[in-house]
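re the bet — no i am not wrong, look at it urself. input seq straight from the record:
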Amino acid sequence: MNPIHTNTSGYQAAKANAAALGAKLISYYETDDMVATTITNDSKKPQTLEELQEELKQKYGFNQAGKSIEGIPASISVSPAFLQEALKNPEKMQWLEENLAAMQSLNTGMFAGTLTQVSYSIDAKGEITMITSGSSDPDGRIARENAARKQEEKRLQEKQEQKRLEKQKEFEESLKISQEQKQDNIFSVSGLNMQTIQEKFQESLQGQNRLNLEI
């Protein structure tokens, strides 16, 4: 296939020429009287979706479990529909690789706090979504304070539970004593006649009733 010449800028023309040849533009240098370009032509470029996915996995960690970027857990995913388009369109393939390469580094200074995870996804239309999670407690001070607060709350709960158990034990012991004191009573009275005996027996019953009321 012959190179394509366009009226666009020199870089764009060189990029289009490389794509028309099934190659990729690696470098571009232009002066007033000359243009120098470097292109690469990989004869083993992927032909199927599976081959492309495997190549991207090896080169950029695409769909790779346990991937990290500069020590930060990361994930990268691309819509299969976009990958199919990239297989047919060299410019989309180049765009894809340029962006996947850019995802391999992080400017952690732009994040407030400490970055703990990042994920990238490219949808069927080529829209890139970046999702990050992080901690606003880079020195761990807030985490330590929260841990100390939870420990103190747990200690207070245990203390309150101990008091509750002690009160319950006291109540059970008091109830046990009360029940023991309510055993059958035996009275022994004597007198010169039945009237005297009945009066003394009545006095004993009244005395026992007063005792029960006091308990």
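see?? The first helix runs from residue 10 to 20. told u. also The longest strand covers residues 114-122. so pay up
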